[in-house]
Write a structure and sequence with these properties.
With 82 residues, the chain is mostly helical. Helix content is 61%, strand content 0%. It has helices at 10-23, 28-48, 54-68. The chain starts with 9 loop residues before the first helix and ends in a 14-residue tail after the last helix.
Amino acid sequence: YGTFDFYAGFIIGIKAFTAAVLGGIGSLPGAMLGGLLLGVAEAQFAGLVNSDYKDVFSFALLAVILIFRPQGLLGRPLVAKV
């Protein structure tokens, strides 16, 4: 790495938000699980395929999880009370 620019914290913030959404907004254990899952999956992808596209893989993983489970991994489904 060895470089510093104005947007150094931006990608970290985006990945933290991605981990929170992946685990389920409002669930602290879900955010921790999302961060762990995102980190391991991204490291495996960078090691096996190509490290240039690890951010693309992270957001694609988020999209796939949200398609099948919109509330996140440990989020609770919203129930409408009438």
